[in-house]
Amino acid sequence: MSLFTGALPLVPPAATAANPQVKGRNVVALGGGHGLSASLSALRLLTSELTAIVTVADDGGSSGRLRDEYGVLPPGDLRMALSALCDDTDWGRTWRDVMQHRFRPGKGPGGSLDDHATGNLLIVTLWELLGDAVAGLRWAGALLGARGQVLPMSTEPLTIEGDVRVTAADGTSHLETLHGQARCAVAGSLEAVRLLPEAAPACVEALSAIELADWVILGPGSWYTSVLPHLLLPEMRQALCHTPAKRLLTMNLATDTKETSGMTAADHLHVLRRYAPEFSVDVVLADPASVPDLPEFQKAAAMIGAEVVLGKVGASGRRPVHDPLRLATAYHDIFGNS
């Protein structure tokens, strides 16, 4: 019988599930985009008991178009997380490349596939067939041979809203509200951030994963639009604050970005304390090159209850990106010392 004859089961058959891996600690990684992809690429080397919880507030590019046209969760960051967990076999690598493939503009004007990622279309297809966001991601993970599972932070699309100070020609300034992740991500310096709807439901499976985890890892990633949103969603913030798991915060390699202009590494920690004062952390992992004022950073970390661990986790080269092997080594050492 054809797979697509009638309704699909919500759980993929065992024959198509990922190959069994050596189990390790139960780890939950939260974030979005390239930051979460970096931590997952490292963590998949250490454990198969891995859950990625992904922000669902993207409103730009292919994800934004699909979100607007079909009323679905933005699939882009979910796709990137799945691709990072692909099994390291010809099958897994091939499907990773398929998922990440992006259609270039065709010969005709305004082609409907222009700039869409294949993986985004595949995920939305599974959502339409199943009518269930979590089940669709399970099927996508089974197809890719993913080491672990990918879950959305909420089962409904979220919107990030931020306030940025704008200086007029006469020298006066005022706050301007920016609507959407795409605009907030290049705002320069945000003074306030909100998640809409404020009382959106968190994904039940994500809350359960946080409760059962041995370690919960937040970051790296765009601080206001990928990391902070997990603490802005009430149910998820409560789960992160009350989980018996150890909590680890992975710092970015670059702190002065289009989203965090002029901010130091310590300022990043102050942001988390400001929005979630009840949230504490056990360990903060940072590359020494990104923390020029170590005493100030250690003081900020102590305010959230954290020990600072320094380790060279950046890749060689000019771009500030994490090296999966170096990051995996740092995580391994931290886990082993817990």
TrEMBL record:
Coiled coil: none
GO cellular component: cytoplasm
GO biological process terms, semicolon-separated: regulation of cell shape
CDD domains for the chain: YvcK_like
InterPro entries: CofD, CofD-like_dom_sf, Gluconeogen_factor
SUPFAM superfamilies, per database record: CofD-like
Keyword terms: Cytoplasm
Subcellular location: Cytoplasm
Molecular functions (GO terms): LPPG:FO 2-phospho-L-lactate transferase activity
Statement: the UniProt record of this protein carries the keyword Cytoplasm: yes
Family indicated by similarity: Belongs to the gluconeogenesis factor family.
Functional note: Required for morphogenesis under gluconeogenic growth conditions.
PANTHER family tied to this protein: GLUCONEOGENESIS FACTOR-RELATED, UNCHARACTERIZED PROTEIN YVCK-RELATED
Official protein name in the record: Putative gluconeogenesis factor
